[in-house]
Amino acid sequence: MDGLGDRPVEEFGGKTPLEYANTPNMDKFATLGMNGLLHVISPGVTPGSDTAHLALFGADPYEYYTGRGPFEAAGIGLEVKHGDIAFRTNFATINNQDIIIDRRAGRIKTGTEELANLFQDMEIDGIKIILKPGTEHRAALILRGEGLSDMVSENDPHVEGKEPQEFHPLDDSPEAQKTARVLTTFVMKAKTLLSNAEVNKDRESQGLPPANYLLIRGAGKVPKLPNFEKEYCLETACVAGGGLYKGVGRLLGMHIIEDPRMTGGTTTDLSATFGNALEALKNYDFVFTHVKGTDNFSHDGDPVGKMKFIEKIDKELYRFLPENFKQDLVVMITGDHSTPCSFKDHSADPVPLIICSPDCRVDKVTKFGESYAVEGNLGHLLGKHIMGIALNELRLVHKFGA
Ligand code: ZN
Ligand code: ZN
Question: pLDDT band for position 327 (50/70/90)?
Fold first, then answer.
């Protein structure tokens, strides 16, 4: 559950949304399992969702993380290659005075596929340009070719009513200079192409903001990540709706289960998510299942929404209870970081963790929650520890030494 951890909420009598929520299934796992608190990257470090997931899967983010762009690009299904420079991109609206008046082009719903096609086969300075739309105004951009760098600034001013920023190299290398030059040329060409596109003429005639500009940010060189399946000898499936999480899974070599009912939002179909996870367990050894909505409610500062969403998730977890699942199954329940509703952003507070297996050393914890978990026998762990602990539960780890 993304952004699961929280802080005491006054209207919940000082409990967190998770502690206040009615979660009989999670509590059962807590009762039958081992509990602890997880510092996903390390104590005092506030994780992003991308770095957090790398850490949970045992890929040190300090070694492998190069920016969010590559994960977003892989998440919407772009075939990214090691060495590509990937960016997060928004279709946006710019006026005649070159002022950004809508950073999301009115959250454009249709037509972005057609707009992206305008850039098919585009090359600038020998660099291939690949733009693929995601949901609504979102898209991913890839620059592919020789002599590129991810040390380049963004053109997104992050507020409306301002001009876009210029792309600057962030170091002295000729690669960074070339990348900034290519981006500058690309954005100019894109503005002309987009302004003249049929899709945008239609939008303007309907009084909708045209998607006539591209805001580009989050440069990252596509890293060569360790292959999760090879690393752990597990056939692995990724069940997620959010693009970033599918991207992390894809770059780690997991099989991605696609289902449009899983939206990665707060109205996602949770029975689809956990039904798919159950189905995937028939064919895969390890199933990573991700739900994003908990984090969305947290960013909106809505503890009641978060609490109710946790209750909805809980209802879906009956499938995996030992009484309903006959094979040996290790269930790990946790978050990628805390997102206290009072912060409306991520924090370094550790997240509660359950690891439940058929013959684990059961502790005395009987409820799932931040303040209960610390009483458990797992104590305080780092994110990178959990895969080894889970594998040990099924006697799947090699001995270190003789
Ligand atoms: Zn997250
Ligand atoms: Zn978040």
Answer: confident
SS3 69: helix
Cα 4 from chain centroid (whole Å): 14
CA 246 to centroid of ligand 2, rounded, Å: 16
From the CA of 334, the nearest ligand is 1
Q: Domain residues of the chain, as ranges? A: 10-64+225-393, 73-221
Say how many CA atoms lie within 13 Å of 170 toward its Cβ: 10
For 124-143, write each residue's pLDDT tens digit.
999 999 999 988 899 999 99
Spatial strand order of the sheet with 255-257 comes to 255-257, 236-239, 286-289
Res 201: pLDDT: 96
pTM comes to: 0.88
Would you tell me how many other CB atoms lie within 10 Å of the CB of residue 396? 14
Kindly tell me if the per-residue pLDDT of 34 is higher than 90: yes
Q: Quick check: 44 and 362 in contact, CB under 8 A?
A: no
Cα of 173 vs centre of ligand 1, distance in Å, is 33
CATH number (1.10.10.10, 3.90.180.10, 3.40.720.10, 3.40.50.720) of 10-64+225-393 reads 3.40.720.10
Query: How much distance in Å is there from the Cα of 337 to the middle of ligand 1?
Result: 6
CA 277 to chain centre: 18
Ligand located closest to 51 CA: 1
Look at residue 370 in the predicted model and tell me its pLDDT: 98
